[in-house]
Amino acid sequence: MDVVTPQTLAVTTALLHQAFQQQAVTTERLQTMGEYLWQISRPLLLANHTPNQQIIGLNTQAYPSLYWELLHHPRLGFVAQHPDYTLYHQWVSTQIPPKHPLPLRILLFTIQLEKDVQSSLEVETEQQRIYTVLQPFIQQGIVQLQLPDDGRFSTLAQLLAQPWHLVILSGHAILTETADTQFLFEANTLTARKDIENPDAIEIVPAQQLLDVLKNATIECLVLATCHSASLAATLHPFIPHVIGMRDKVLDRASHIFLQVFCSCLLQVARVDMAVQKARIAMAQPLLTSSETWSNAHCKPIADPSCGQWSLPTLYSQNPLRPLLAPTTSAISLSVQTVTTPVLPFLIGRRQALRELMDLLQQQHHVWLTGTTGAGKTTIAQRLIWQLQQQGYVIITQLSTLPSHVTVPTLLYLDDLKRETLSIEQQQQINALPCACLLVSRRFFDSELISHHYPLSSPSFLDFSRYCRYLRLPHTSVQLRLIYHGLQGNFAAVQLFQNLPPTNNREQFQQQLQMAKRFLRGRGI
Asked: Which residues are in the CHAT domain (predicted)?
């Protein structure tokens, strides 16, 4: 093996970074980097964690930007892939125990940019995966989960005023020409033009600004599930007991696997370094199902870009043996009350509508949501209800069950509202309610109700395209445009195309589109 020099290390690191950016990483390149790192790693091993203890800690402060998770042992291979070892970084150590007992408070904060379907994140799938893992623990009252459909930086700052055991920040980050990291958040106001060049469509937050918010928060473990976030994780290391960042450009699907396995293992083994190691190992497995293929922005098949993704999660820990919960957890867990939680409604997109409606309801407004059949209004309402329930709201679905006095946060929810549904007396009763109220109907009609009318518009083409991708429709972008405009973005009608054979024949496609339009007319849409 060649003796590594600073110049060799710098060139190898630069080439590997370029390969990650171009999604052209090879196992040979990973191993070369790992063998070089092994040569210089001996002085960096922490004295109190030797390989015999199967916990390998490194003080990498002198080499912060190297791909240390590729550390390659001559006999064991990649250490970060070995099931009997764990690997972490430690620049600062502490023996201070955690302060907060059960329930385990988890925040999954997702950010979805309105750009294009190819670069958009599958945040709904990510939310669903993590919720599925956590749901049994939520039912037992062991976990409290919040996953807001609101990716604004201001919302994150508000939520971080509360203490959390685990915070997962999932979104976008970019490198500037000067190698500074900038994080992209949803803007307060979205405009009709949805692309990254439009400054109104996103809010760019420099790493320093995000650092200022995170370092003052009370967090036991932070996962920065964004590209190029390892440097911020290192900077946050003195302020947060466990911080995980991504060394380079991480694939959305790889991030999903990491978070799903990490959360599952964390609740089983209660050791952050072990959960990270198991999640890295899972990332090395095939990321797609047997029916899926990798493709580019033009939907053309490409080579598997997932090689080396497992090496990107980087753990900085003040003490890998430190649990997330206070030592009194075992005593408290015996008295945790089982809670009944509804299933998380699955909804793709509509984040702006969800955000605006949530703001109105949290201000105790009476909101009347209207929209055609298939527009998604009922699912939106169910999603809002789920979110409010996680915040402690009591949901009332019948006027007859309304308490005489409202002493806790309460929402009255009435679906499929019709003119003949409510008497004048009932409408006046609703008007007098001192709590939030959500009314849902196909059409707005004259009544005595005093409410904020929210007509649900057709979904954006991006949301519609993402829904079609979720349904795994094989249509071209041109065909999707025609379907979108022909059906006015109706989610119910587009499901018909799941049962129709795909075709490139223009006449056959038009026949299928006309069939879907007749379906809409038959439902009075």
From this structure: 52-289
CA–CA separation, 466 and 184 (whole Å) = 20
What ranges do the domains of the chain cover?
Answer: 6-89, 104-333, 351-455, 461-522
Token pair, residue 230, equals: 């390892």
Using CA atoms, how far apart are residues 489 and 481, in angstroms rounded to an integer?
Answer: 9
pLDDT in tens, 342-376: 788 888 888 989 999 999 999 988 999 999 888 89
Joined together, the tokens standing for residue 253 give 């699907």
Amino acid of residue 25:
V
Find out whether 59 and 91 touch, Cβ atoms under 8 Å. yes
CATH, range 351-455: 3.40.50.300
Q: Give the three-class secondary structure for 58.
A: strand
Closest CA to 426 of 399, 446, 453: 399
CA 186/CA 262 separation, integer angstroms = 26
- d(CA 91, CA 314) in angstroms, rounded, equals 13
Sequence-ordered list of residues with C-beta below 8 angstroms from that of 78, at least 6 positions apart, any chain: 30, 31, 34, 70, 71, 72, 311
Which CATH number among 3.40.50.11600, 3.40.50.1460, 3.40.50.300, 2.60.200.30 corresponds to the domain 104-333?
Answer: 3.40.50.1460
Q: What is the pTM of this model?
A: 0.88
Q: Six-digit token pair at 345?
A: 């409604």
- Per-residue pLDDT tens digits for 200-234: 478 999 999 999 999 999 999 999 999 999 999 99
